[in-house]
Every structure is written in C-alpha cells, then in structure tokens.
C-alpha cells in the first residue's frame, strides 16, 4: 500500500504516544500548581497551560531531544513539556538551532523536523483543501510551517545555485588579485626606474 508524506506524521505521533503509554506516562502533562509570582525573581514562571503530549509538535520535540541526547523519550518528557509550554510550536526552530550549537539552520538544505520539508503546517488543511487563492502561496499566510516558514527544501537545486554563486565570487576574486598584482608590478617597476636614475 503506497504511503504519503503525511503518513509519517501519523506514524511519528503514534510511535511516541505508544512509548509513553507503555511507560505509564500520561498523555497530558499535569498543570503545574499556580505559583505566586515573586516580582523580584526575573525567572519566576506562572504558566498554567496544560501540554498535550499526543500532538505532532510535542512528539517531534521529544523525538529530537531523545535522538540528540541518545536517551529514551521518557528522559526527555519534562524538557519537551517545558519547550512547548514556554515557546509553543515555534520553539522547535529554536530547539533545532540549539541542537546545532546555536548556528542558524537553513531549511533549504536541512529537512525541517516538524513538516519534513513540505513547507506547510502538517496539522492544518493545506491550501488546496481550503481553497486558498493561488497568490496566497507567496503571501506568508497561516498554512506555512511555523518552524521553517515554508522554506523550499531542495538541497540539490540550491547546492547547484550556491556553487554557481561561489564560482562567480572566486572568479571575481582571482581577477581582482591579478589586477592588483599588475598594479603592484607597475608601481615596483616605476620605483626601480627612479632608483636607477638617481
């Protein structure tokens, strides 16, 4: 039976929730008790937002953390809870950057961990299903992936384009170097003539 790219999102969610169920971890994070925020503590948190551990965003965060640290998902539950509670789905982009030592991630060359490179939010209906006007495709409307913002993942095409740009820059640098060398030669020759005359 042929599978579509959207089947992988269902599979990812099912795999992670099955692991949580097997480990006896609830699929909804318990809401933290309401804290009396201390006005003098800049790190005080009063979040009372429950986290649904069966969403694609939470499962993606937990899987990314577990893969990066080489641990089971059970060791990353609280970290995934905190990430989604504090930053929401957009926090996956920050997490992805942090896992790459803070370097910016270019989603044209690196597959987005949330949408797997399709460029649209996999949890929302796509433009074709909703019937969006064709010009909205380039408008930055709400169907774009909140992590990669719809960057077109085509490493082969972008790499070729990148190599062409680099070759042009290299050719320009070589030409400029040759011009400078020629100028230095003329200056040196002129100085030598003056020195010989005096």
List the defining traits of the structure above.
198 residues, mainly alpha, two-stranded antiparallel sheet, 6 helices, 2 strands, 49% helix, elongated
3D architecture notes:
By secondary structure, this protein is mainly α. It contains six helices and two strands. The chain has a two-stranded antiparallel sheet. The longest helix is centred in the last third of the chain and has 43 residues. The radius of gyration is 27 Å and the shape is elongated. The relative contact order is 0.09.
What is the topological layout?
Blueprint: H1 7-23, E1 28-29, E2 51-52, H2 56-69, H3 77-87, H4 91-99, H5 127-130, H6 155-197
Antiparallel strand pairs: 1-2
Helix pairs in contact: 1-2, 2-3, 2-4
**Gyration radius over CA:** 27 Å
Count of alpha and pi helical runs: 6
Q: Decide which structural class fits the backbone.
A: mainly alpha
The helix fraction, in percent, is 40-55%
Biggest sheet layout: 2 strands, antiparallel
> What is the mean pLDDT?
79
Q: Report the β-strand fraction as a percent range.
A: under 5%
From the spread of the alpha carbons, the general shape counts as: elongated
Q: Strand sequence of the main sheet, in spatial order?
A: 1-2
Distance between the termini: 91 Å
How many strands appear in the DSSP assignment?
2
Unreliable spans are none
Query: From N to C, what is the helix and strand string?
Result: HEEHHHHH
């Amino acid at each position: 039976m042929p599978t579509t790219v959207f089947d992988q999102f269902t599979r990812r969610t099912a795999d992670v929730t099955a692991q949580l169920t097997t480990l006896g971890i609830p699929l909804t994070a318990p809401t933290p008790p309401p804290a009396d925020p201390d006005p003098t503590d800049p790190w005080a948190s009063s979040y009372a937002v429950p986290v649904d551990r069966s969403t694609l965003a939470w499962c993606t965060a937990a899987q990314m953390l577990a893969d990066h640290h080489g641990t089971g998902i059970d060791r990353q539950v609280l970290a995934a809870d905190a990430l989604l509670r504090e930053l929401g789905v957009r926090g996956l982009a920050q997490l992805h950057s942090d896992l790459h030592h803070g370097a910016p991630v270019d989603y044209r060359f690196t597959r987005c961990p949330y949408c797997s490179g399709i460029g649209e939010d996999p949890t929302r209906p796509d433009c074709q299903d909703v019937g969006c006007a064709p010009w909205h495709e380039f408008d930055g409307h709400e169907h774009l992936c909140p992590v990669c913002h719809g960057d077109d993942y085509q490493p082969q095409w972008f790499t070729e384009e990148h190599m062409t740009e680099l070759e042009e820059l290299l050719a320009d640098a070589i030409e400029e170097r040759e011009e400078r060398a020629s100028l230095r030669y003329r200056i040196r020759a002129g100085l030598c003539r003056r020195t010989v005359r005096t």
